[in-house]
Amino acid sequence: MEPEPEIDLQALDPSRDAVAWERRIATVASRALASHRRRNRALRRGAIALMLASACGLAVWWSAPRHAPPRAGADLLDWAIGDVDASDVLALEAGHAR
Amino acid sequence: MDQLPVADLVIRAKRGDAAAFGELARRHLRAAFAVALAVLGRPADADDLAQDAFVIALERIADCREPARFSGWLLQIVRSRALHALEKRKLRDPSDAAGDVVAASMLGDVVLRGYLLAALAELPQAQREIVLLHDLDGWSHAELAGALGLTEVNCRQHLFSARRALRAALAAEEIHGTGT
What we know:
Oligomer: heterodimer
Structural class of chain B: mainly alpha
Radius of gyration of chain B: 17 Å
Distance between the termini of chain B: 31 Å
Shape of chain B: globular
Structural class of chain A: mainly alpha
Order of helices and strands of chain A: HHH
Number of helices of chain B: 8
Helix content of chain B: over 70%
Largest sheet of chain B: none
Distance between the termini of chain A: 104 Å
Number of strands of chain B: 0
Largest sheet of chain A: none
Shape of chain A: elongated
Order of helices and strands of chain B: HHHHHHHH
Radius of gyration of chain A: 36 Å
């Protein structure tokens, strides 16, 4: 395969106007740098906010009263919100009545 | 700074080194433009998109896990943004075509540019990217293969086909596209 000679694409070259090209490079670099710093700042603040929120969450959980241990047996509330057989509740109520 | 390998520049840029940002832009902005032009077909659109994509890429430079392969990573960002922009442009104007930039009133250099763009628009996208990166930005076959995920032999074949098709299209318009 004979190598095809190069195509002259200079007409499409955006760097032909050297001054404008240098200006464009400087603009892109400064925009990118500003954007990079903004992003890093946001990420840092986000990380701090997350740590604070986690610490607050832990503090609240730590200071909250512990739940009482679940009672044995079933009552009307268990039957209403849970999967407790009605006959168990009736039996319990009967026991109370006696 | 201009002697440093790209990997070192990327590491410096990750630390927020302003000079490294400038040098990365100097070395890669034209390649970003070439890929955007290969997709969009319009120099003005390609110029805007290349700049925006470059800013976004450098903003997220921390995500570039392999600094030595920065150019491939950057061109992937440019390509995907350009394809997205092309989709949006087609939705806005379904009759729009990438190579419809040749206006009857163009003169001199602008005419040549129009013919080149029209001839490029006839090539497959991969060939457009390869011929623009090689003949416009001076990339080697090894660099092309690394950045585009192809073999060097593939790159040579694409470049050969692209040049032949371009030369035929330009010859039909009696434009001399041969360079050196």
